[in-house]
Amino acid sequence: MRWFLGLPVVLAALGAQNFTDIQPSPQQTEWQDMEIGVLIHFGLNTYTDKEWGDGTVDPKVFNPAQLDAGQWVAAAKAAGARYLIMVAKHHDGFCLWPSRYTRYSVQSSPWKSGKGDVLREVSDACRRQGLRFGVYLSPWDRHEPSYRDNAAYDRHYNAQVAELASRYGEIREFWLDGAGSEGHVYDFQTYIRTLHTYQPNALIFADVGLLPYGDIRWVGNEAGAAPEENWNVVDAYGVLRWRPAECDTPLREAHWFWHPHDERSVKSLEKLLEIYHHSVGRGAQLVLGLAPDDRGLLPDADVARLREFGDALRRLYGHNLAAGAAAGSPWAAALDGDPDTFWSAPPDARNAEIGVRFLAPVTFDRALTMEWLNNGQNVQKYDIQARVENGWRTLYTGTSVGHKKIDIFPRTTAREVRLRIRMAAGAPRIREFQLYDGSH
After folding, report:
1. Mean confidence (pLDDT) of the chain
2. Does domain 321-436 have CATH number 2.60.120.260?
């Protein structure tokens, strides 16, 4: 995937805005709580050993005889994913649903005698197994003849948006990928108006330069890494918007589609955990790219690694040591393990402290902090400290917290630990302060 910048946008004049005044929508806070998703690439490229098709491949090569969308969804769930984004049309223009507006689709393939619908099978599997469903519809189309005419292609693409938005139930996220579109002008406002006619709660993912009025932003790389200091508000063409970052990275190194004899490229468990800590652990969303093979199944190696990843996260973050200190604490709402409750400093406070006191010493090597974001993101600088023999020792100093911040430091044993918020733009509000020992 590549991105382009510089689309002309006319924005209404607005009053002065402050970054810390911008608040998320209810849909955005609910989306951020999902934390992990998957992005499924599957199509003609699966059968041609390519990443980007040119729109000339015969649909007759598409014949996934063992396609099992339920297996894809189950593997995603085992990794901890809560939503799935299906690539409905990649840059080659091949549609995984029977579109009324092109024959370059599953209806021209031998799969199910041309009567199949991959999107239907995936969306149904998601709902059976409790994952939220999203779609990726490439604006760039290397097959569609009308692409050469901006207005004609706008009508074509908008009609396909209406098909997807009206046929497959709730769409939680709609991906707009700007790859390959340099020099082409799209009527994004009409597309989004059509999408929201059928899907008013759908969130729009796009690069800030591609679509300044989107809801979710691309983090800027495909390594699955957000910056250490990560703010949810961005300046898009002079207008401040709440646009949390989504970190996308393929499960296999550098490959979004399946390629034969490529099992060695599956990322190691250690690498996936590093990616998790650099994405979700820095307040962003993690989207893992999954690629079914030419049978229509996720390979065994991929399924096993996804389960290992989910098991490791459950092992690392399954026992919150701080929860045992919540009873009777003035900060109980931040220590109770329930992200639906939060502790708030007084309205005029710009610094604060949350303390944890144990009956006996505990050993830990990481802290997990969550900010209550409904009124905006406020924490600007903080310390995590433990009381040891010689007094308070600083284990970690950080800047932003946001949705979730995971800080890892040398293994420490102490009876008292505190989160010191040293600077905040508004009254600090903390959903959770948790401690874990990830060394075993």
Report:
1. 94
2. yes
